[in-house]
Amino acid sequence: MKLRSLLLIVPLTIVHLHGVAQQKNTFKPQKALLTTIQKNLADADAQYKVMAGLLKPDQFPKAFHPKDGKMETSNSGWWCSGFYPGTLLELYEQTHDKTLLTEADRILAALAKEQFNTHTHDLGFMMYCSFGNANRLNPNPEYKQILLNSAKSLSTRFNPVTGTIKSWDSKPTDYLVIIDNMMNLELLFWATKVTGDSSYYKIAVTHANNTIKNHYRPDYSSYHVVNYDANTGAVKQKKTAQGYANESAWARGQAWGLYGFTLMYRETKDKKYLDQANNIAKFILNNPNLPADKIPYWDFNAPNIPGALRDASAGSIMASALLELCRYTDKADGQNYFNTAQTIIKSLSSPTYKSAPGTNGGFLLQHSVGHFPAGTEIDVPLTYADYYFVEAMTRYKAFAAK
Question: In the CATH scheme, what is the code of domain 21-54+263-402?
């Protein structure tokens, strides 16, 4: 399971977009920000070497706690396990630093067994962000089989009665589905394209359609969790577990939906998904509680705004999604999305959010919020904040490619 033989992948001016359709470039990236991005990527290269040095074998970075200087880690079964190798590979693509590639090889070997994990819906995060990137950079049968097994494992969690993929295992009377699950559908689309088996595609579309129907409010904000009756498919409960309140708009949940429905449009070209993505974007961007720097509070309805904590992870996901969505929509909306993403990248590149070299456990970004109500991962760096920030920066760079 090696990527070491991989040749230098592409010139730095030709940047992957994870399947983003290439449309006529009407958006003009700022030269100064492109320079900042190159500096960010070089700094991230150095930071991830620091991070690698703090990890023991089979440990995956989860968060870093600046107050006590401790790295929090997980095993390969944690839902975030794919972000570390994924970020290493995306950075290698940009910097061609083979030290990152060697570390990616090492940690991918520890992650591979999760292809058979049927107890999580997060196999898209875990396996497509990692092995998906590995296979994109260096296609080979081993990576392909791992990804196909992962798609099969994910498909076992689909219930045709509810028309959804179960997110969290719980008591038999509950069937819990979270908005985050939209992000795992990309793996299923990939599996259909590779095998010709339409069952993966149909599961993804059915899940997305029921998410539109049951997760979204009239203003296009999303609940975090919908609890279905597994026997009848009826909705029993709607709530927001990681947000401020059941009827609040948890920021990262809104970002997952924005990204998820944008990729749904990319993969299906069905306009209802583009409409959904546009409506979610407008809820976010027109929200009176969105700060001027466009890094959202951890919940749009947090009670102590403007003193509420920001969530850099939600900002990163939003930026990456908007840099894809702007390619699909009309000129005015597209320019607004592009400008907003540009502002987010600038904000995250500032000392307010970006780590000083050699600090923060090797993470690139500071100030994310994991699960505020549970008191976990509060105002700390998180692996997915870094992953989507790097992805957003590479997507921004692509607008400068000729």
Answer: 1.50.10.10
